[in-house]
Structure prediction request, 397 residues.
Amino acid sequence: MTSPGSTRELFDDATIRSLRRRLLAWYRTNARDLPWRRTRDPYRVWLSEMLLQQTRVETATAYYQRFITRWPTIEALASANLDDVLAMWAGLGYYRRARFLHQTARQIADRSPARFPRDPADLRRLPGIGRYTAGAIASIAFGKAAAAVDGNALRVLARLAAIETPIDNPATQRRIWTLAGHLLSPRHPGEFNQALMELGASHCRSGPPRCTACPLATFCEARRRGLTTRLPVRTPRAEPLPVEAAAVAVWRRGRLLLVQRPPDGLLARMWGLPAVELPPGADAETQLLAHLRERLGLSIRLHHTLGEVTHGFTHRRLRLRVYEGRARAGRLRTHGYLAAVWTAPERSAPAAVRSATPDPRPARSRPSGLALSTLDRKALALVWAESRQRSPGSTRG
Prediction:
């Protein structure tokens, strides 16, 4: 028995055909001209989808152009050094995506021939490709009748069917994916999926929706019932956990120490100042001195505090206190870190990174730059601001 307000009751076959025609006609006239929409190359479609996760379109577009210029094919990306990929990704956050990008490129390149699978189930076996990304690649690149529900499409569908249960509830998710598959155009699946996303980005927004200009207004159950500003419903998120940490800008003979984090964990393989997370009530200076001695083999003298920076992660809110100090003794080692370099002081963090101590590895395997996260860039900005305030001829011991 069909319950009131079900998909079958709201959208019969004739209504669905009309909805598809209306949405596709609107999209063909109003779609933004984005570089990945000019191609069906699965490599470029996949790259764009990875970049767009948790990222604004304007930002993703700039990164997309840089990636394509540097690595125009999946074989080129597969042959790249992971540290180069992380350096190119730096600033986007969620760095696990960059590692997944590199892992998937290598898995595809190892195939004979080097091709993406066409089936969504096979695509989901690749690192970092979930249900949405698999549906997007399969439908856009290969014309497969696979739904692809991102955050924008989720909002559109929840309002179309006036779904009042939280959209992050697993049962609600299943209902919305079923609805997406039911509405999907079998002749133009990739275009239809992109049209839903475009509508969510431009009209059916998270704020007050632009219902009067929406091509699907006459099909929208939430609009008919006056629920558009109340939907979709989400379960309230827990407040991020506050975390305290301390970092230090260590100078020796006029050079600054940067370290590369371990291959696993938060900000894996990213570069930055030596830092330590602080237990509740711990003394920051004591923790830093012990960390430098035990992990890097250095005895340092702390000078003063440069300031604090804050940064939000998915479930954490980090407050990082940044110190400045001088290495007094000890031979640099990297116990628990992947690498460490002494960098020449420059006017900005990017310049300092470019002037890092030469890497002894072969040119084909060494990174062309050091990957700095947004958190690390914030911390280094304090260091270089302090450096600019001093006289040009001043040096650190």
